[in-house]
Amino acid sequence: MFGSLPVYGDGAGGYFLYRQIVEKNYSFSITDPPLNYSGSYIFTRGAHGWSTFYQVGAPAVWFLFSPFTAFLPTPSPARSVLLGSAPILLHDGIAILVISSLCCIGTLLLWTRTLRHIFHFSRIHAVAASFASFIGLPAWYYAFSVPSYAHTIELFFLTLALSLFFRALSQPSLVMFSAIGCAVGVAALTRMDALLYLAIFTIISLTVLHRTAVVPLVILTTSCMIILSLQFIVWHRIFGSIFPNVGYNPQGFTFPLHAADVLFSGSRGFFIWSPIAVIGLVGLCILIFQRHMLSYIAALMGVQALLFYVLFYGSWEMWWGGLSFGQRFLIPLFPFVALGVAAVVRALTSSPGYMRFVGTALVVAAVGYSFSLALLYPTAAQRNRLPLEEDSAPAETARNMIGYYFTSRDGVPAGGWRVWYNATLRPSHLLFSF
Question: Which positions ≥6 away from 56 have C-beta within 8 Å?
Fold first, then answer.
């Protein structure tokens, strides 16, 4: 109800491709530059006209759901001007938000069930760890405030792949490995970094299953690449080559590495903006030292995934992710962060009273810190209402937000939450008048 309907920034690329699919324009290109879309910086000239280098996975998923919201009206031109938003169709915005919400719910249910039935955490520990990690990471922000960025779709399919993978380690099945490959393929069709999970699955499968892993891995990889090939076909259709001429291409990866910045920089450092990740890492270390077979393997995979993602994005020229909230590129680590948090929470229940109190307070503080930063940031940054820069640190962001939203200027109250609420079109605006 309180999610954001307009498409912003990077989401404009996905929305452009979505509209081409809806309109059956399979060249994915138009004659004139699409200056009426927000985020025009992501458009470039291709082989047949103007298009974008963004990926087709999220637009394809949105398209599957669009018939269910096609009956809704479009926002009036006056309302669009008032909001300063992209000229999107209202039913498109609702479809994107609903799909993101469903993926959010699916991710939480999938991983909570996995923590309970695969790793044998209690219900309360599994639920608490999943929700604390989802809220403590930027995941919830990109699920509801900027759903068009497609991180939530990628996370759902990676979580599905992980859940299936841990079942496959106990009961190997070629069908299961094929399903895992399909899930990773859809995730990679949405965001290419999902292929890092393919590398992790390969390493762990060879370590645990040895020679018997060869055929399942061939099936997994083949299933993944068949689905991912659709992206290379689309790029070839747009640009005349399997990689775009700008944006997502191998030339964007350079050295030296910014690995330390990805984790510790005030400008989108993972541990700085999402300290729940530190607690999750501590929990993974606990599971490694306990050496219970499946939990031990999962914890090693979590450390591996953190290393791979940090090295991958630390090598990219835009490692901080632009003008956006938190270290969004590491959202796919949510399952492992939740696993680690569950281990910490379980350990706290058997600790002395004062340690239990301090540990619980740290978890709550970590979640509250990130949630508070994200609560008012989205529309403020997107609507250019604050002097936020791409390298704004958490303290600066919080100071600017508090100063803008809650401090009266010239004797006039700033408006508090109503300023945030009315800064973008929300579903609740369609039902209620504030």
Answer: 17, 28, 189, 230, 231, 234
